[in-house]
Amino acid sequence: MTDLSSLIEQSAQACARARRGVALTGAGISIESGIPPFRGKGGLWEKIDPMKYAHIEALERNPAEVWQVLFLGIADHLTKAAPNAGHKGLHRLEQMGVLQTIITQNVDGLHQAAGSGDVIEFHGTHARLRCMSCHQSALWHTVSLEVIPPRCGCGGFLRPDVVMFGELIDTALLQRSQTLAATCDVMLVVGTSATVEPAAYLPVLAKHNSAFIIEINPEPTPLTHRISDVTLLGPAGEMMDRLVNKVADLRHGD
Ligand code: OAD
Q1: pLDDT over 90 at 33, yes or no
Q2: Per-residue pLDDT for 253 more than 90?
Q3: From atom 32 of ligand 1, which residue's Cα is the shortest distance away?
Q4: Catalytic positions
Q5: Please, which pLDDT band fits residue 240 given cuts at 50, 70 and 90?
Q6: What mean pLDDT is reported for the chain?
Q7: Does 107 have pLDDT greater than 90?
Q8: What's the pTM?
Q9: Which CATH class is domain 37-80+126-162?
Q10: Whose C-alpha lies nearest to ligand 1, atom 29?
Q11: Atom 17 in ligand 1: which residue has the minimum CA distance?
Q12: For the chain, what are the domain ranges?
């Protein structure tokens, strides 16, 4: 058995035993859907300075510029994207009763599009807009983009309902995520550089509470060899396919 096959076997055995599995996902799981990540080669932060365009103070100072440079570009990628084998694999694990909840740092809605039922959008969602003055929500198709930034009926500027640098994670979502991390038996950490807090702490919390941590990423991260019990070094689509097929075999007693 190759090293990778044996790591997939170990991961599948942990999944097959799991009753309270949780996944933490990041931008890497959506790369195969054509959405660029933030860090690394081809990443968004290679092209634009996040402190200049992805910080709440930048949005408050110059909403038109942040819309032009950041939000419209992301929206363009998201409208063309569909779930890939990574998202579909996590949905299959939910159907098998292995996974309870997905905590995603992504704002692209692709886990829900793949069919996953319980998805915590830790960094919000790009699918919804929110008024910066009256906080009323709006959907993109109801809003005119002829003038950027688009405006709410109250006259305030609209923005995507995402968490920007300098903003806090919604308290209820943070507390639920921490509880799930502290009580899960397996955590799958897929496609995240695990460098942005407080999301990056969730696998640490899970590990300290005896969960088995399976990481899927083509590159090592700060979790690899420290927090992760197994790291499947490879792209999310292929690794998820292999893992899920193996879990299905174990469940059927092969
Ligand atoms: P990053 O862009 O930091 O990391 C993407 C990860 O995906 C890296 O570790 C890559 O090695 C990995 N990767 C690359 N190709 C992959 C593939 N085919 N399959 C699986 N993994 C692959 O993205 P995040 O960790 O999600 O926050 O970033 C966290 C947060 O930083 C984002 O939510 C965003 C950003 O600033 C906010 O905007 C608040």
Answers
A1: yes
A2: no
A3: 105
A4: 123
A5: very high
A6: 97
A7: yes
A8: 0.97
A9: alpha beta
A10: 196
A11: 235
A12: 1-35+83-123+170-254, 37-80+126-162
Q: Is the dihedral of CA 128, 45, 175, 230 positive or negative?
A: positive
Question: 104 in ligand 1 pocket by Cβ < 6 Å?
Answer: no
254: pLDDT strictly greater than 70:
no
Q: How confident is the model at residue 1 (pLDDT cuts 50, 70, 90)?
A: low
203 CB within 6 A, ligand 1: no
Ligand 1 in reach of 188 Cβ (< 6 A): no
| CATH H-level superfamily of 1-35+83-123+170-254 | TPP-binding domain (3.40.50.1220)
Is 28 close to ligand 1, i.e. is its CB under 6 Å away? yes
